[in-house]
User: What shape does this take?
Amino acid sequence: MSFELNRSMGRAAAMLIIVGPIVGSIVSVAAVFFQLLSNSLYFSIIFSILSFAAYILFLAAMNGLAKYYKDPVIFRNSFYGVITAVVGAIVFIFVMFAIFIPTFNQLIAISITPGTLTPLPSVFLSFLGVLAFVWLGTFVIALVQGIFYKRAFYALAQKSGESKFRQAGFWMLIGGALTIIFVGALIFYVGWIFAVMGFFSMKAKAPQTYPPPPQQPPTQAITQKKYCPYCGAENNIDAVFCSYCGNKL
Assistant: This one.
């Protein structure tokens, strides 16, 4: 694939990664407002598929750019970053549906039971434990993802000469580290914004030109002569007899 196609795919993928969660949040709020909670699962599935497609497109672009710049670090770290995000999402969904939601429903049921003023301590502690697990797990996954993306975008910045990729990797690393105080996700998306700008402004590498080899000056033909052994006179190389004394050469 050409450089321009890889650049366009990377630009489109980064824009989808940025816009997807924003549109998903708006749709979720609208679903609550218009009492369409029964369709929220379908909305989640649709946006999950779109997000997955965006990351696949991003990997395809980084793979093409890694081959273009002959640097496998670009794709390898991008791949590890995406895999980390996918594994984190799978674990998060499992924890939410298998542990968090049942515990939360149990907590609500105990709270609204007549005659029960406070929820059972064991249920409340279980709920806090799940929250702490999700919180720390999200932090670790975001930090590891930020490290991989930082390496990928730093390598791309070095090969392409586009400094915005370096800023993208820097803010993704900072965002992953600050996920523990709940502002990291916002900073992480700042990194994706710089990535979009980098894909817009990056240029193809200039073709290498080599100077023509130096030309050798033409050599003048050297006229060979032979000399008469009798008189020493100079004669042509193909002469049989001396032109001065007449002796046979």
